[in-house]
Amino acid sequence: MTTPTTPTTPTTPATAAAPPAGLTEAVLDRAAGHRLLDELQDRPTREATLPGLERIAPGFPDWIVTSLFGGTYQRPGLDLRDRQLLNLATLGTLGGVDPQLTGHIRSSLRVGLTREQIVEVFVHLAPYIGTPKALAALRVVAATFQALDEQDEAAR
Amino acid sequence: MTTPTTPTTPTTPATAAAPPAGLTEAVLDRAAGHRLLDELQDRPTREATLPGLERIAPGFPDWIVTSLFGGTYQRPGLDLRDRQLLNLATLGTLGGVDPQLTGHIRSSLRVGLTREQIVEVFVHLAPYIGTPKALAALRVVAATFQALDEQDEAAR
Amino acid sequence: MTTPTTPTTPTTPATAAAPPAGLTEAVLDRAAGHRLLDELQDRPTREATLPGLERIAPGFPDWIVTSLFGGTYQRPGLDLRDRQLLNLATLGTLGGVDPQLTGHIRSSLRVGLTREQIVEVFVHLAPYIGTPKALAALRVVAATFQALDEQDEAAR
Amino acid sequence: MTTPTTPTTPTTPATAAAPPAGLTEAVLDRAAGHRLLDELQDRPTREATLPGLERIAPGFPDWIVTSLFGGTYQRPGLDLRDRQLLNLATLGTLGGVDPQLTGHIRSSLRVGLTREQIVEVFVHLAPYIGTPKALAALRVVAATFQALDEQDEAAR
Amino acid sequence: MTTPTTPTTPTTPATAAAPPAGLTEAVLDRAAGHRLLDELQDRPTREATLPGLERIAPGFPDWIVTSLFGGTYQRPGLDLRDRQLLNLATLGTLGGVDPQLTGHIRSSLRVGLTREQIVEVFVHLAPYIGTPKALAALRVVAATFQALDEQDEAAR
Amino acid sequence: MTTPTTPTTPTTPATAAAPPAGLTEAVLDRAAGHRLLDELQDRPTREATLPGLERIAPGFPDWIVTSLFGGTYQRPGLDLRDRQLLNLATLGTLGGVDPQLTGHIRSSLRVGLTREQIVEVFVHLAPYIGTPKALAALRVVAATFQALDEQDEAAR
After folding, report:
1. What pTM was estimated for this model as a whole?
2. Do the chains contact at F120 and D85, CB–CB below 8 Å?
3. Domain residue limits, chain E
4. Which residue of chain E has the CA closest to C127?
5. Exposed site from D2, D124, D138, F150, fewest CB < 10 Å?
6. F30, F69 contact by CB (below 8 A)
7. Would you give the end-to-end CA distance of chain E in angstroms?
């Protein structure tokens, strides 16, 4: 048999229902997530992602913002600069996700990483992910820096 | 500068705050997630995962249950059998995640997939993921079926 | 030493020679494979793949059709809708294979998957393959749906 | 609707039906495939794979032998030593497929690659796949060489 | 024709020959590399890797130490804590490289990352690499922490 | 604490300092590396890579040339044709690194591989890496061959 999963209308809000005994409740803070996203992403990145995603998959953008930026990002231990270093490493290792890498390069600059440091991330990783993937990531880095310079030019 | 992300004490619960204009609110139903997990996972699988994970990463098990089983799994369009087919394909394609694959093979049987169908998933995928990864997945399938048979034996 | 593998002129056709004792003979039905491909692929997809592939690698298109569509696809247990769900999951997990994903999105619609279901495949998989790869797949989905709409427009 | 794919009883054998106009017929020679496998694999490797695979997925071993060793391996241009170099590179790049890598290391020795050359394959690839995957492959290489030495010891 | 690459006896040491016009000379400092490795790796990790690797691939351990720890690690911009965050992210994303991940978890503790932060690395990455790979990495983290505790016990 | 890695000004050149007892010294020959690169890469490939890379990451191109072409490529056992077969297999297996694959296809022709053999590399690998990645690689092969033909045309 195959049970259809009709969306359960949440009679109890996520943060109201307690998790089973022995499990710590996870933070899932929609408002904090959207605030953090505004801090991390510049307008071009935000506009290049959420609206188009909402059109094709309604509710998925809010899931991403609440579960990630309002969830895992809200946990203690790592600051935003640390988290962006991790994101850059992971996206460069995955490969083939250039638009996401572009957005995270822009966000990395916003949380205090310098252009030099962003370049060094992929030079450092070259012996770990292989030079082909490192070169692919550096191509995206160079293109993103150039786009930012042209943006600044246009803003003058 | 690097902004420390001290966990925001959620003054407003996730489902209370409204997403920004233009975004549909995502379902994040903790109670429904834990109910669904109980339906999907047998006791051995559940006990092999959540408690140990809670010990090392408090709050992460509840995040997984609420965001996945209480979140993406609650969306309409696909039933649980469809979702398990997708999970099996993805885990076999990723490779190197045998414990997760084992758990999802067990869950697949619970939502109506037959042993033959689970085997055919990886025979079908062989030309898409390559025979080496297909053979690796089938090795896990065979081991899981054997463990289930021994479990049944013991239960007699 | 290195043994050259000059192509063996098949004195005995594939399905005539019996496999060694203990092995079940595999179905490798060229005619059935080409019939199934005609059912699965629309003209644009077919014309975008086989002829160009034949020019650069003569015999490889027929190998794909006979071994896959006339081979693994002919095995019992899974229907074509199941197989397309598996293909979508695998291509989204692999990443970097957009033309193949585009073709399989078109084929998925032909075997009964709805546009909504194809979108939900990648929303469901997001927590398993990671949001970057899920967003990359959804970008291909959106582009494919738009191309189909323009095709329909043109056909009017 | 979902079309069930009941296995088509091949009224016409694979090599009898002609491919559509414009496509070259692929070689799919079952007998040649099984002969080649006997040449490539030593008894331990063969016995570690096919029988167990036949038990769980009847017909899949014969599909592998006929489509690969009786198919793609029968094409001209590359000799068996070339093909084993490619297999070693691919299995080391994929990672997480140690049993397959072990079998192909054994086969590589049978087609004329030396132990030193097999080691150098992964030293050469280290900067391309990253040192972590290269070290993982070399661990399998060392274990396989040791197993072969113990085998020889026992054979004395 | 195939040009054999007989190892060139370096008439000029690496750092003596100047790179072509327009290229900056890379730092490749063997002594600094071995010093840094002593700082990064504890004895168990070092002994688990280099000697065995030297036996099977003479010269490869020194290549790794000089090119990585004496090369890319010597470049400015990122400190050792940053580099370990990148290494953890990459190894968790690659998957299937548990011994390397174990060594880098131990090194991460030596450069100032806390156990909590190492755990948070993989909780943070879960939505980017997928929960299956995050759970696989956390399993290695838990095993490494336990081994370190037992090591401390034994040392008492 | 986080130790800053200020670039160690190499008081002793790489090939002067001896590795620790028990480790064989690796060849790292800058001059040989740049000579080999000139042999392997045609002008278009070289100009498409190193200068742009030097601009964004000064010193990284020389690191690649000295550590790879002056390092791992200088080890005995495999000739350049063997090494290119390995490179093609690895790049096709990684996927998503088209510019690197393009360069290595051009280099493969320079060390004696024929166009037919380069095509067969990916036909052979199809059952190992999956047909989607094989088709993606063959698309790059076809585009590279066409670019070479147009180059020859223009040179007339």
Report:
1. 0.92
2. no
3. 27-76, 79-156
4. E130
5. F150
6. no
7. 64
